[in-house]
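Hey, can you fold this one?
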Amino acid sequence: MLCGKCTTRGGIVPETRAGVRRGSRHSIPIFDRSSPAKLSFAQQQLWFLDRLYPGSSAYNFDVTLRLRGELWKDELHRAVQCIAARHEGLRTVFFTLPDGTPRQRMYEDMEIPLDFVDLTSLPAEIRHSTAHSMLTEWARIPFDLEQGPLLRLRLVRVDPLEHLLCLSFHHAVCDGWSVEVLYRELEHHYSPTGATAPLPEPAVQYADYAEWQRRRLSGAYLERQLAWWRGHLDGVPTSLDLPEREGTVNPAAAHGAQVVSALPSATVDAVAELARATSATPFTVLLSAYALLLARHTGMRSLLIGTQVAGRSRPELHDLIGLFVNTLPIRVDLDQARTFTELIAHVRESAWDTFTHDQVPLETIVEAVRPRRVVGRTPLVQAVFAAPATPLAPPALPGLTAEPLTLAPTTSKFDLGMAVAPGADGGEHTLSLTYNTQLLDDESAQQLVGRYRELLAAVLKAPDADLATALPDRPARPGTTARPAPAEAAPAREEAPAEARAPFRSDLERLLTDLWREVLHNEHITVHDNFFDVGGQSLALARIHARLERRLDRELPMVAFYEHPTIAALAAHLSGDSDQASTGPAPDTASDLRTARLRAERARSLQRRRAAT
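Sure. Predicted structure:
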């Protein structure tokens, strides 16, 4: 899932403001708080990823402002507390039922911590660099989803009239649209005198939305939506064939970096002109060029590119802080277009079809399509694109001038993420590429951005020229290796081989088989079936994991279920018997477990340290 920083009201998809509808007969009822609240689909996926990679900061979400002028620290803190008091989602933590099912708990009151650092004792020439480094490191501290809070503040004083404010969220409680809501309410509540009138209570809270979403996305309605998605994605490769850097050692790591470049105003104007000429939008033109770049980079003729929709289909959701954004895969078939003009038309129609089915969460689409899962790779979508229509204006606070700052990313949720963001004056735009550092180094990322600019210039100059001449293919860079794509579809179910019907080789194989059959409601599962080929998905995996830990009375790294997706391989891995597994030697279970424990303990330790200070 791409961090929802681009889903402002201007829209990541300005031609449709996808996921925002003016009216619907499906009103949202108030959820009965007497029982534990369910998670939304998006929250559940982030909860699962937190269990899969404990101690990860991949889904931290930060907003940073430079504040010039006389700042009242206590009033700023009070204003944020008022916002948290109004939005139940900011007072939410997550817990797990005995069967492994997640639930959310909303507290009536929760203190949002403010960490204040005064750098005025340092030499003036190093204060700004020190402040940026401190905030970047602090913003990557992992959250403890069970303890909370999932929002924290750090205020750094550079000099008496300049401060840097960083609000760090876990993505499970905030998205990009929410930042605009937060800014608006911060404007209302921040006052040097502290005298502000309370805002009216929201019509609904996030837990109401989560329950409504669960009920709505079920039955015949959901089946119709999923039938469309299965047909739409039929035959398209579900994994990009991206080369890896040599020496990659940890495919599960989410290490990332970003390169930033300028997109000149003349190019921006040319994009807008071509969009008008083709009855499209600048977003569609820029996305089409990105698809062409990926096709040239991978050699693929059919691919999926993820983009985000706001996910706020009801008007009562427009003023809530929470995670509503949804990532959707847009299918692009290069064989459908001979020229760039034809490619724009194809992408426009494909995107439009996608946005009319935007209510289905990505994870639900994944469960329906059932692509092969690989540790460290997001299923279906490995490359994403964003192009917000308007920049997010900073809050107007009395006595202060606010300026947005961007902290350098240190993680990457996707292999490649390109964004084209408008400048404050609407002229020159910013072109950025966030990338997995196990695929690209800085030089390669810079070259890829350069290729996009070069390709965009070529197709803008001659949109009706043959695409084969738009930009010649370039050979792979030295130091990279082809990244093998996983198989694209589960094989047809056949009669189990004789060895699969043979007696279990261990009590652990028998236990795992019983758990799989019980949770997946499938009595035909064998020890050689791939978990995800027989209907397995993240929540089912979490339930099996919880039950297995109870039965074995030991902690188990959940990532082992991804690395060893058959019963035979998993049993061999957990028992330390690599000879029984057909997938190669089993990694060191004890080492994996120690790593998982250390990462989880680090997150809890850091959380306790912040609470103590």
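The first helix runs from residue 41 to 52. Let me know if you want another pass with a different chain boundary.
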